[in-house]
Automatic annotation (TrEMBL):
Keywords of the record: Cytoplasm, Kinase, Phosphoprotein, Phosphotransferase system, Sugar transport, Transferase, Transport
Gene3D superfamilies xrefs: Mannitol-specific EII, Chain A
Protein name per its UniProtKB record: Ascorbate-specific PTS system EIIA component
Signal peptide region: none
Native source species: Lacticaseibacillus jixianensis
Domain PTS EIIA type-2 residue range list: 5-148
Compartment(s) where it occurs, according to its Swiss-Prot or TrEMBL record: Cytoplasm
Entry function: The phosphoenolpyruvate-dependent sugar phosphotransferase system (sugar PTS), a major carbohydrate active transport system, catalyzes the phosphorylation of incoming sugar substrates concomitantly with their translocation across the cell membrane. The enzyme II UlaABC PTS system is involved in ascorbate transport.
UniProt cross-references to InterPro entries, sorted A to Z: Ascorbate-PTS_EIIA_comp (IPR051351), PTrfase/Anion_transptr (IPR016152), PTS_EIIA_type-2_dom (IPR002178)
Amino acid sequence: MKLEELITPAMIQLKVPLYTREAAIQAGAALLMADGRTVAGYAEAIEANLSRFGPYFVIAPGVAMPHAPSSGIVKAAGVSVLTLKTPIHFGHEHNDPVSLVLTLAAPDGKAHMAAMGCLAQRLSQPGMIAQLTAATTKETILNLLTKEN
């Protein structure tokens, strides 16, 4: 699986004025649904996971990767990308506040692990999170996440 298969320009929004973690989850899930990757109910599934397990998906300082089991809600793997105008507290003790929200949808466990692996590899590159957060165009986001080094 490659990130260019998971992210389209329509699934990216920059410097979005959102102020709650629920609004960020809804916005990320709405982009996935608009692209046909999920059906209605995915944001609610993510919020149920958040209620049950806490903000485990705040995976690095400033970065959240909301996701939930597919349960028939996910049609195809995808990742929406939101950079936030103002950082949001998701409730994570060490990695708050969040400025970059990568909402992940995968139709099964294999696709989920493959997508997470691709994202983790890309995000672990020096300076990547800062570059993504500072990006001012969708093309910059796509290039950062999908170009080969």
